[in-house]
Specification:
This protein is an alpha/beta fold. It has 10 helices and 11 strands. The strands form 2 sheets. A 9-stranded mixed barrel has the order 1-2-9-8-7-6-5-4-3, surrounded by 8 helices. Strands 10-11 form a two-stranded antiparallel sheet. Helix 9 runs parallel beside helix 10.
Length: 358
């Protein structure tokens, strides 16, 4: 999937403000020992009593609120408390300790997405500067802070490295060296609670998994989770894009992941669909695939309206039918209790929705 340069930097701009994402996901066995007591559920919130086998998450950035308020508003929209939250940082931003702690009190684990840049900058020699040791102190500080937290921290390092819209993109040999160097710094600092996520963009026209994803892989010893980022930009974004099914966006890349990394936990790290009359059906088609494939444990919906950056509105509530499909799937698949839905959004006053038996 072709994504213009503005796509990556638009995301970086979003992360420069108050940035957060909510994610529901499956837990790895080694993570299950860390379960923070959940906060009391509100009228549009329920905390699962056990981590689900299949789960979802969302990324969101609410420009009008602080992180905590934005998080709770999104929980109200979804109708359920997620298990993960994504937070973007760059070199000018320290480890988000308060965010991680706030999430943990709600039994939400944090995915820290590391931009290899400084927001507002465009340094395409950034990998050279990291290899020269200029980032060592920064990475050591991140590692120490993560270790101090103690619980599992998911570190999505240099995402979409196979794209030309990020400063660290399309440099596979240097990227692998940078990843291993940084991983070793975390190891030296004893940050064994950090889980490393390898998250390339899906391949698109004229590209192959072997040439455009595999060369960026740092090696099994340096990666805990493999993921994919992919979007259906629809027909109206640019002349380079057209409406594509989930299979058309993700299919070849998923097959490559399963072929080359069969023993790694597999997530869809970012996913979104442009607004339009087919969005609800696109979401439902994806759910049908996700429910059926036992290898894909987690997906994270990029829940932001990025029209301000020249992208589509990715939000699940860009239309009410899409929201209804998404919300009902989330509650059905992740909740084992019943609760009252909010009074707005067309659901009616305090209508009770009981999850079906899986």
């Amino acid at each position: 999937m072709i994504r213009e340069l503005s796509t990556g930097w638009g995301k970086a701009f979003g992360a420069a403000g108050v940035v957060a994402a909510l994610c529901l996901t499956a837990c790895e066995d080694k993570d299950r020992a860390f379960i923070e007591p959940p906060a009391p559920a509100g009228p549009a919130q329920v905390v699962p009593r056990a981590q689900p086998v299949k789960s979802f998450g969302i990324y969101q950035w609410n420009k009008q609120t602080n992180y905590e308020q934005g998080l709770m508003e999104e929980i109200g929209t979804i109708g359920i408390t997620p298990s993960y939250a994504m937070y973007f940082i760059d070199r000018n931003m320290a480890f988000p300790a308060q965010i991680v702690k706030f999430n943990a009190t709600r039994n939400i684990r944090t995915i820290v997405t590391q931009e290899l840049c400084t927001y507002g900058g465009n340094n395409f020699q950034v990998l050279d500067s990291i290899l020269a040791g200029e980032w060592d102190d920064y990475f050591r500080d991140i590692a120490r802070s993560a270790k101090k937290f103690g619980g599992p921290v998911y570190y999505r390092f240099g995402y979409e490295m196979n794209g030309d819209w990020v400063a660290w993109g399309e440099q596979p040999e240097k990227f692998v060296q940078v990843w291993r160097r940084t991983h070793d710094l975390f190891k030296e600092e004893g940050a064994a609670n950090v889980r490393w996520i390898f998250s390339p963009n899906v391949i698109w026209e004229g590209r192959t998994f072997e040439q455009d994803i595999l060369p960026y892989y740092p090696g099994d010893a340096f990666v805990d989770i493999v993921g994919l980022d992919g979007y259906n930009f629809g027909d109206n974004h640019s002349r380079f894009h057209k409406w594509r099914t989930f299979e058309e966006v993700f299919g070849a890349s998923i097959r490559g992941m399963k072929k080359y990394f069969p023993h790694k936990t597999f997530w869809i790290a970012e996913i979104g669909c442009a607004e339009g009359p087919g969005k609800a059906e696109w979401i439902q088609d994806f759910f049908a695939y996700f429910n059926k494939d036992p290898d894909v444990k987690v997906f994270i919906w990029f829940n932001e309206d990025k029209q301000y950056a020249g992208e589509p509105n990715w939000r699940i509530d860009s239309d009410m039918v899409s929201l209804d499909r998404f919300r009902r799937w989330a509650i059905h698949s992740n909740s084992i209790t019943s609760f009252a839905l909010p009074m707005d959004q067309g659901y009616g006053p305090q209508r009770m929705l009981r999850p079906k038996t899986l």
